Amino acid sequence: xIQPSEIRRWSGKFMIDTGAIRMAINENIKEKLGLKNGSxxxxxxxxxxxxxxxxxxxxxxxxxxxxxxxxxxxxxxxTEPLLGAIxxxxxxxxxIPSEGTLEYNPKHPDGALFSLK
Length: 117
Description:
By secondary structure, this protein is mostly beta strands. It has helices at 27-33, 85-90; strands at residues 15-16, 23-26, 39-44, 50-63, 66-75, 82-83, 93-96, 101-104. Helix content is 11%, strand content 39%. The relative contact order is 0.23.
């Protein structure tokens, strides 16, 4: 069992991208966290190009008192990390564009609501 002192953490800012399905970190964050190599996946980028990008699983993301486990694509160098739709929904968060903030979803104040329908 891993000890709490062995847990690697990174705290920083993400660009919130509701058009991105998954989260993306950069190579510097991957290195700092000591994450193992993942699998290469074909990814459609915002500019319409398709590139093979590494996907790493088993990442815990936290916002306030909410958290979820997700996977993340690894972008080159020090590219700005992205927080996508799966992470936002997994933590029950909504974007408030007029204020440039994230808030807990008022429809689900006790946490995210998942559906298996």
